[in-house]
Amino acid sequence: MPSRVLTGLFGHETNTFSRLSTTIVEFSDYLLAYGDEIPNAVKGTVIEPNGVEEVAEFYNWELVRSVVAWATPSGRVTRDAWNSCVGHVLRTAEEGGTLDGVLFNLHGAMATDDHDDAEGVFLEELRRIIGPDIPVAITLDLHANVTDKMAQHANIISAYRTYPHVDQIDTVKRAAAILDRAMVGKIKPISHIARRAMLTGLDSGRTTSKTPMTEILSQADQQEAADPNVLLISVQAGFCPADLDQAGPSVVVCGNGRNERYQAIAETFMDFAWETRHFDSNVYLSVDATMARLKELGPSNGPIVIADCSDNPGSGAYGDSTFLLASMLQSNLDNAAFATIFDPKAASQLQKERINARVTLEIGGKTDPKYGPPLRVTGRIVSHTDGSYLARGPRWGGTTQQLGPTAVLRVDGIDIVVASRRLQCTELETFYHTGIDPREKKVLAVKSLHHFRAAYAPIASHILICDSGGLATKDLTKLPYENLRRPIYPLDIP
């Protein structure tokens, strides 16, 4: 008889300081499917649920599919969205017949209107239904804030090992290999978690150069290879803009049974994270410093990419800060492009005008003007799109991204992509679908921190990281934490 495995995806990275709620509409705008709809919804993609379909075929599992739901990072997930998605999973677990295991895809940094530790609560509620003995495997984003409750209720925790995240399916395969053995009683996986008084560390998990994260992952590989009872070591860099007591880096050792030596291994790995906590491979430039550096670089062989990390929707920022764009316009840049400015009102107004029409309007700065007020500009409309395109990059390849009604407004020498929905700019297709060839631009500005590198680093002559002062600023002292354990690095401890 094939093993019967409950599966699904409920993922959101919640910036608890954002004023934008995440409703079921935000999930339906990105990815939302139920039950038998799931295989077609994820077919051909590089995301985790497609990996689940692959491993189920490999191990001859029978999948009990619940829901796949993902939304762009923003503020807390609303009660209605939680009830819709988690409620469906729990009903599926109750009504789906006998289960042998669970393989569920989470993010690991979700907060809701009612729960700071949403994934811990979800796993706790699932356990009430399936009981304590069924093995539960979860996959997580590398930026998960793994809590004690999550580790208590998940036997197997498998986080991404790349940032930019390009190993979603491999992450599923690591978890599935252990789950398959556990379901037939060959092993008894137990999670052992360790953390320190740190909110940041491990170079935020970056793996595009030699960093503490690449070193600790190498150590994990060696430990797993040397000891067959160390089933999996999962390293999480944590997610900073989360007002959660247990936010920050963590290590989970999945051991064969409960044993103090597995906990000791986790503690040793976290000692390394603590010792290397000051390492940061990025140089963060102010807006003025970014423009000065751009002038120093001069003409280059390939576009100079400016990443506005502090207004990155991928960290829950609003995506409508105007500080960087205003400075780019004041610098009289030529042959540049900017993606994106989130502004549904301006996008709608631009959609109503004909192509090549000259218009004057305010763009951006409408969510919270303290992160960059609306910018009054005059320009020519270059293109209109419905904002829908197939992503082809290594981060979201195979998925359809939705910017909503979108227009390109050319203001002096800058093509500005004005969108109706918030989306981190990780794909070249964000530009291509509007008629902009990013390879032909001298300067490209993208709202992203690091994920953009997967698609943009191969075409860039230089990369500049700009902290323009948005909601996702690297200056964590500007965030009003109330629930975070204190003292903690870097807020209180040097």
Description:
It contains 14 helices and 20 strands. Strands 10-20-11-19-12-18-17-14-13 form a nine-stranded mixed sheet. The radius of gyration is 23 Å and the shape is globular. Helix 3 (48-59) packs parallel to helix 7 (168-183) and helix 4 packs parallel to helix 5 (118-130). It has helices at 24-30, 38-42, 48-59, 79-95, 118-130, 148-153, 168-183, 212-226, 260-275, 287-297, 323-330, 344-352, 429-432, 453-456, and strands spanning 4-11, 31-34, 62-70, 101-106, 136-140, 156-159, 189-195, 230-236, 250-256, 284-285, 304-308, 336-342, 358-363, 375-385, 388-390, 400-402, 406-411, 414-419, 443-446, 462-466. The protein has two domains: 4-275, no CATH class; 284-475, no CATH class.
